[in-house]
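@channel sequence for tomorrow's demo:
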Amino acid sequence: MQIMHEKGHLSRDERGQTHVYSASQSQAKTQKLLIRDLLDRAFDGSARRLIQGALSAKKVTPEELREIRKILEELEGDSQ
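structure tokens (generated this afternoon):
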């Protein structure tokens, strides 16, 4: 917890005898930072390899695949 506090991931309330920790960033921001780190460390920055690894690590439902396709289509539309 101390290390996470030093890195700015947690805030700490030192009032009273115990320290109370809480997240200092939103869940979405934390997930984005973790994914970026994983992408760089484990997949040499390749989003394609990250997605292939994620999809092959666990069975994906047809509904999840539809949602993923929809996200990809939206991303393609934004880049045009």
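heads up for whoever presents: The first strand starts at residue 10 and ends at 13.
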